[in-house]
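This part of the workshop introduces the protein records we will be handling. A record pairs a protein's sequence with a compact description of its fold. As an example, a complete record with its sequence and its C-alpha cells follows.

_____
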Amino acid sequence: MSTPFPKLRRNLVAILRGLKPEQALSMASAVFEAGIEAIEVPLNSPDPFVSIERIVGALPGSALTGAGTVLTPSQVDSLNQAGGRLLVSPNIDGEVMARAQDYGMVTMPGVFTPTEAFFALKCGASALKFFPASALGPRGISAIMAVLPKDAVIGAVGGVSDKDFGDYARIGVRTFGLGSSLFAPGMSVDEVKRRAMSAVAAWDEVFGGAAE
C-alpha cells in the first residue's frame, strides 16, 4: 500500500546536492526556517547518510527529510537506518520501490514518459517526479498529465527555479524540487536562506500562500 504524499505547507523540496555533514545542520535549518519543510540529500553527496541522520535529529517532526539519487534496495535500508522518510530517485525501479514501501517511506521516483509514470503509480509512488522537467517543459508534462489519474501528485524537478512556478501552475503542477537554484557547494548559509526565502515568497504568490 502506498504512502500518500504528506500535506506540507508548501510543496517544495530542497535538494542539497553536495552537502557535507559539517554543514548539514546549518543549511537544513536555514531552509526549514525559510519555510521549506522537505529536504533531500542526494546520495552522491559526501557521507549523505551522516547528514540525513543529523538533520532528522535536529529538525521538528514536521520536517520531511530523506535522500535523493536512491538506486538500490540496500541504499533504502541505509536511508531507513538514518531515520529518513523521503525517498527520491532519478528513475523508477520496482525493487527500490518495494523496499521503500516496506518502511512506509514517501516516494518520488523519476519518470519521463507515460509508461514510466503508470509503472511508478503501480509501484505505489507517493508522487511522480518528472525529470528533467526542463526537457519536457510544462507543455510536455501537461500532455502526459491528461492521461494520468487526477489525484496523482505531479512534481517538476530538474532545471526548475522559482521563476518557473507560474508556468507550471497553469497546467496544475504545484510540487517542485529545487536544486542548484537553491543550493550549491560553496554557498554561505545566508545565501541559501535568502534563496529559500525567495522561493517561498514566489510559491506563496503563485499559489495563494501556505496551506494551514
